[in-house]
Amino acid sequence: MTLKLGHNMIRLVPVLVVVYLFAAFPNERNALAQSRPGFFAKVSADLLERVRRRASRDRVNVIVQFENNASSLQINALLLNAGVSATRSFRNLNTRVVSLPANAVEALAAQSQVRYISFDKPIKTFGHLTTTTGTEAIRTQTVTSLLGINITTTLDGAGIGIAIVDSGIDANHSAFRNSLGLSRVIVNQDFTGENRTDDVYGHGSHVASIAAGRGVLSNGDYPGIAPAASLVNLRVLNSQGEGTTSGLLAALDWLLTFHTTHNIRVVNLSIGTPAVDAYWNDPICLAVRRLVDHGVIVIAAAGNNGKDAGGTKVYGQIHSPGNEPSAITVGASNSLGTDVRGDDTVTTYSSRGPTRSYWTDANQVKHYDNIIKPDLVAPGNKIVGAAASANHLLTIHPELDAEVSSMDNYRMMYLSGTSMATPITAGGAALLLQANPTLTPNLVKSILTETAQPLAGADMFEQGTGEINISGAVQLAKLVRTDLNAFTAVGAPLLTAAPPPPQTTIAGQTFTWAQGITLNHTYAYGASLASQYQKIYEDGYILNDGVVEDELMLSINPSRMSSGVTLGTSILVSNGGPLGDGISLLGTNMLLGNGIMTGDGLMIGDGILIGDGILIGDGIMIGDTVLQAQSAMTNGDNTAFMP
Description:
Blueprint: E1 2-5, E2 8-11, H1 26-35, H2 45-53, E3 59-66, H3 72-81, E4 85-89, E5 95-101, H4 105-109, E6 114-119, E7 122-124, H5 129-132, E8 140-144, E9 150-154, E10 161-166, E11 185-190, H6 203-212, E12 230-235, E13 242-244, H7 245-258, E14 264-269, E15 271-274, H8 283-293, E16 297-301, E17 319-320, E18 328-334, E19 345-346, E20 358-360, E21 366-368, E22 376-379, E23 383-386, H9 392-396, E24 412-415, H10 418-435, H11 441-450, H12 460-463, H13 470-477, E25 503-506, E26 509-512, E27 516-519, E28 522-525, H14 528-531, E29 547-549, E30 554-556, E31 566-567, E32 570-573, E33 583-587, E34 608-609, E35 615-616, E36 628-629
Parallel strand pairs: 10-12, 10-14, 11-12, 14-16, 16-18, 18-22
Antiparallel strand pairs: 1-2, 3-5, 3-6, 4-5, 7-13, 8-9, 15-17, 15-36, 18-19, 20-21, 23-24, 25-26, 27-28, 28-31, 29-30, 32-33, 34-35
Helix pairs in contact: 6-10, 7-8, 10-13, 11-13
């Protein structure tokens, strides 16, 4: 039996896999680690690789996380004594970006005030929507007032702020103006050092228009999902589509300070970097968790590494911060250009789970997160979106022009990738919040995944719970009680009326909802998820907190999830029915292993056999990693390539 991992073919041999289990709560993990000095390495694996390759006096830029009990004075004194020059600090994160000699990294890590050190990775881009996603079906809303008068409203994202953390937005493009011709880009911030917020590269404007483009030309073609939403332009990718982890952290730190000021309820991250560090060490993941805890929904791209250079399907390539449990991680589906959904598939290039970020203990054993991701998929193949004026991508690849208009502020272009699927979900989240402003990020995530359509023939590591269904999600969101709070009992009624039938009809085709959610190493399903209040829907929790894990099994946490919820015992290949139906791929308990590595770095301990004979491998890229925007220029699913 062999597995395909990058370019290596590995023969599996029987091994004894030692299982190390932790609860899914970062604070509990950290408390355990702190109580046992040296229990895990405090330096990221890719940084160590760089340190060992460089001359000892060469300087490296790193991100240093400090313990919560370390004061600013202690941190300043430590850095001063170590001869380290700090280049950036963050208002809301106990983190500094510093420059220091390579040979000083491990000495700095040995200090008790230091929690974790990671490399300041460079970043760049990864590679009929309103009808096929069900958006048009719910665009017009009619409600009856207390006086019995029918009032018609439009569900278009009005009043909701969406932050686009990307390569900038061309604010002069018609897609970003309202009916009066005024710009809906309400804030512009640059975190690249180029001191500009326009979109020279071309990725951010395309992404922003999918989430919230108004539609162009006289007939309003190519509207975004939430065309009246306000846009916040946070530029972290430069003119070449590249940036740094520290730049992204600066943008997320800014959001932690100003999200309330600008009513930013949704953050779109169509960018990412190979996930190396376990999510509870990864500084980007930790910042994302802080935002979610503050009530902000974070949507992250899965990545475009679902196949290797030879076209072979690969697993375990979810990017950071898509590996963060609290984020809504989105893969790409292919609608084949039709409104009907019966022919939709998961694209070949969309990154598959499970997450392969890891931490290393004192014995140099790697322990992998192995979380089920993505959470869902959305159309991402050959998507038409706004083309920023004279942008780099279109200049180099004129074949991407959608030939909608020759005028700069009306021009549209094609792009493909999970970058395009992510803003569909971000726009959908904005519509849910407009329909019910009291929804928490966890409720939005649950509703989107419960109402998704499982695509037949795709497994959960490829599609999560299925393809986004905005029509069904809005239908369910409108029924959620607006008086839920921390005192609401587990099992109390969640809705103001009976749950709707779990089916949606789009373009004349009716499909069944997934009726389930993913939870760390398993998934849950049952009518209670949509009808009864679950503690995991509150801010300060994540959905994974509904599960208790030990060395051998997974079980419901009764203090956080109600009766009537069932945990899955096997990762499935869907048959197109609700979650829990389909062909078994592997047992969920196989995801609990620690992924023991042999001396030459090839994993043989927890390679997972799947239906097509491919095994889930390590999937970790070490070295000069790049934070990328998750889009690909393509003429079709089989010819996707990275910009």
